[in-house]
Amino acid sequence: MKANIAVLPGDGIGPEVTQAGVEVLKRVAELFGHAFSFSEAAIGGSAIDQCGDPLPAATLALCEQSDAILLGAVGGPKWSDPNARVRPEQGLLKLRQTLGLYANLRPVKPIEALLDFGPIKPERLRGVDLLVVRELTGGIYFGERTRTATSASDLCTYTVAEIERVTRVAGHAAMARRRHITSIDKANVLETSRLWRSTVERLLTEEFPQVRFEHQLVDSAAMHLIARPASFDVILTENLFGDILTDEASMLAASLGMLPSASMGASGPGLFEPIHGSAPDIAGRKIANPIGTILSTAMLLRLGLKLEAEALAVERAVDRALKLGLRTADLSGAHSTEDATAMIISCLHAHRPSKTEESCA
What we know:
With 361 residues, the chain is α/β, with parallel strands linked by helices. The protein is 40% helix and 18% strand. It folds into 2 domains: 195 residues, Isopropylmalate Dehydrogenase; 135 residues, 3-Layer(aba) Sandwich (Isopropylmalate Dehydrogenase). It has a 10-stranded mixed β-sheet, sandwiched between helices. It is globular. It starts with a strand and ends in a 15-residue tail after the last helix.
């Protein structure tokens, strides 16, 4: 297969972890006989520094012409002035909206080798395998904003069509999993959540009768996500709630640096990125955990390029490397970003590994 992949390193540790992802994808291409080409472009704070725009026209054009997009992270204290007219995050929001990437998929499945490394008791983590489906182009992040010297407002709006399309994504995902959806809202207070709840209930009843579903308020769900995480299968929620809950869910996987994500639309390229931010405090120190990005490349292979065997190979390589003792600083270890990447690449195989391959070559 030939594929053109846009690489948007962004800010902070973004360039370090995207480089790791590119190296893994190059090795996958070698092992499986593909031809992947990579084109890099600026986004976020680095793009503001270069041309004053967090999403330059050239970056957007590159993304639109690509088969998939690999993103690092955007933002940092250099651009954090709350009064600034232009901010790094605007570039990412505009990219999602322009490409119509309305569904954000964030899988959470603790890795056996790391059950003792996170803040959650191991016995609560056994059997956890959930997928968060987050609506990505509506809600308060895209509503009208106002600010005066004495007040400010952010408008949260949703349409029935926006809720329906992301609910269908969750429905199809649930059909391929354990057929259970937990829809999360704040319907006891918010009118948008009441519309969300009624729309989700109607659509799932009509189009996915085989799927069991329930509603939970977001504050209750935040508690249950830690108290009984194995009870969740597919979590469906709106933009702001999904953003917050998936950062919380990263603690189930031992570290924020472990989790990947995919942002998908009805057509065109998908956007694949780790869920973590730019981590400016460790940028340039070569200690960033690249696993979230490397697992994002697995999602890129599976969802973006329809290469299931290749995606499984990457996921198995990560598992093997962790079993063999791979630990970056966030996992109380001393492996550098480069060490971790090299170790995972050494564990990559183009077929199901034999017992002799489990040591990694």
